[in-house]
Amino acid sequence: MIKVVCAVIINDGQVLVAQRGVTMSHSGKWEFPGGKVENDESEITSLIREIREELQITIQPLERLTPIFYAYNDKTIELIPYSAILLAGVMELKEHADVKYLNPNNLLKIDWIEADLAIVHQVINDFDKLKTTMNQLKNRTLVIGASPKEDRYSNMAVKLLKAYHHPVIALGLKEDMINDTPIITDKTTIQEGIDTITMYVSDKNQEPYYDYILATKPRRVIFNPGTENESFYSTLDEHGIEHFEACTLVMLRTGQF
What we know:
Elements: E1 2-11, E2 14-19, E3 30-31, E4 34-36, H1 43-55, E5 58-64, E6 68-71, E7 76-88, E8 98-102, H2 117-125, H3 127-135, E9 140-144, H4 153-163, E10 168-171, E11 176-178, E12 181-184, E13 194-199, H5 210-216, E14 220-223, H6 230-238, E15 242-245, H7 248-253
Parallel strand pairs: 1-7, 9-10, 9-13, 10-12, 13-14, 14-15
Antiparallel strand pairs: 1-2, 1-4, 2-3, 2-8, 5-7, 6-7, 11-12
């Protein structure tokens, strides 16, 4: 049995579909992009990696949908779909011939690879529920300065935010992972639904983030110890953004977040 994950990426009420390229089996057929889960990977880590490799974008998987089993002539697969949103990146095709967004009522008008058809019907039937999941992506926390190194406070903050069920986005210097949370580097894709930004970048290195922070329009910015930045506070005041100096880890552990 081969375990395969795929992403049902939803944006503005439409679903991303990908056409298999000439170097792929079942060339010309449409599918939800994804790939094989390696032995040392979780499903989510595998899906994030596959989408980065195939489409050069970073996604945030949201909900595990109902898996299906499909038997080809030479193999049987367990296909595990996840609803997902785009986090960062500009799409660039490495294997596929084409991609496009379709309204759910148009999904059955294209020629699907057989294994994905059951998921297509699942998406169509449950699309209102999927949209509700998307609408819950509000009050997110953006961690600026996220590091894959486990001894860094930013790493601990991402994990603790997840543990306390706060939706979190990790922005760092290089693409990586913190458990199942992808670290993104793209400051051109403005994230929506950001309630809180928690800063883990020293004051002398914060200026490249100023425009990005203002564009996300957060409710508040937390300056963790070592990131205090008096020169930026007046700009935040002018934009009506609350700011204060505190430790995110302490706030979470004491119920003050």
